[in-house]
Amino acid sequence: MSFRARHLLGIEHLSPAEILSVLDLADRYVDLNRRTVKQSDVLAGLTQINMFFENSTRTQASFELAGKRLGADVMNMSVAQSSVKKGETLIDTAMTLNAMRPDLLVVRHPSSGAVNLLASKVNCAVLNAGDGRHEHPTQALLDALTIRRAKGRIQRLTVAICGDIAHSRVARSNLILLGKMECNLRLIAPPTLMPPGVEGFGCELYDDMKKGLKGADVVMMLRLQKERMDGGFIPSEREYYHRYGLDAEKLSFAKPDAIVMHPGPMNRGVEIDGEIADDINRSVIQEQVEMGVAVRMACMDLLARNLRAERGRAAVGVMV
């Protein structure tokens, strides 16, 4: 398989071939996860540390489950009870972790670039589980796998990403990945939630849902990230839902077979109507959760292969 990365810090540095390698391997892990016995030993003997500086349910649980299904020794580090709360710097934390000799380090951090900094200080493979407004690469990969399984392909689709674009690392990673796959990208949001410079991604911009959804193959809704808002970005949740919440009327402007996505957690009645979210004929939101475990298994498997190969070359060098 074509995958040369030492870390998975973002989508930007992955080639289309590397992205497809992740998706192809993840497809195999979907099959494994649907068996009665779901265990593999590809990470046997390796240690995985999950370090989340931000609260998470889906991402942390799926990384933990992925590691355990692959046979790794998995430790969840509680940052709330760690020395970080006592004033330890991120670099000191990295050096402490490095001394424990982990093999895989999964990190979520509220500051953009923090995961890259950690990766430069440790000897293991680092996976970015979301850093600030920068990227969330495994979310984009699981979204891509969900789309490919639902639509039969990932290339050259019309994808509408709707909602809080400004604060969304999910949107950024998806824009990069889907752009590499030559998709027609549309962003739909009120002007206050459209980030500056987004035109550089080569997408069409809309502040009208019905116009933006017209003829879309994929409708990707985003969560309103109130915790990252420090001003009046929307007049009210009621008004936001009226204009930008996905309901049956707005969805009717997309293609009849368009799929509906949401990275979760959902604010029903704000970003999306509950009946649309639960519509088994249109919504693939539960499939996204399932694909998340398989994609994270694939990413850790591929990084572990590269890590073992690197260590093997270093051992040969020492012997010589």
Structure description:
With 320 residues, this protein is an alpha/beta fold. It has helices at residues 16-33, 58-69, 90-99, 114-119, 137-151, 169-180, 209-213, 237-244, 248-251, 274-277, 285-319; strands at 47-52, 73-78, 104-109, 125-131, 158-162, 184-188, 204-206, 218-221, 259-261. A 5-stranded parallel β-sheet has the order 7-6-5-8-9. It has a 4-stranded parallel β-sheet with strand order 2-1-3-4. The longest helix is centred in the C-terminal third of the chain and has 35 residues, at 285-319. It starts with 15 loop residues before the first helix and ends with a helix.
How is the topology of this model organized?
Blueprint (H helix, E strand, L loop, with lengths): L15 H18 L13 E6 L5 H12 L3 E6 L11 H10 L4 E6 L4 H6 L5 E7 L5 H15 L6 E5 L6 H12 L3 E5 L15 E3 L2 H5 L4 E4 L15 H8 L3 H4 L7 E3 L12 H4 L7 H35 L1
Parallel strand pairs: 1-2, 1-3, 3-4, 5-6, 5-8, 6-7, 8-9
Summarize the structure.
The chain is of the alpha/beta class and 320 residues long. Helices cover 40% and strands 14% of the residues.
Radius of gyration: 20 Å
- Proportion of beta-strand residues: 5-15%
Count the DSSP helices: 11
Q: How would you characterize the largest beta sheet?
A: 5 strands, parallel
Class based on secondary structure composition and strand pairing: alpha/beta
Q: Please write the string of helix (H) and strand (E) elements.
A: HEHEHEHEHEHEEHEHHEHH
Global shape: globular
Quaternary status: single chain
- Major beta sheet, strand line-up: 7-6-5-8-9
Report the helical percentage.
40-55%
What is the number of beta strands? 9
Low-confidence stretches: none
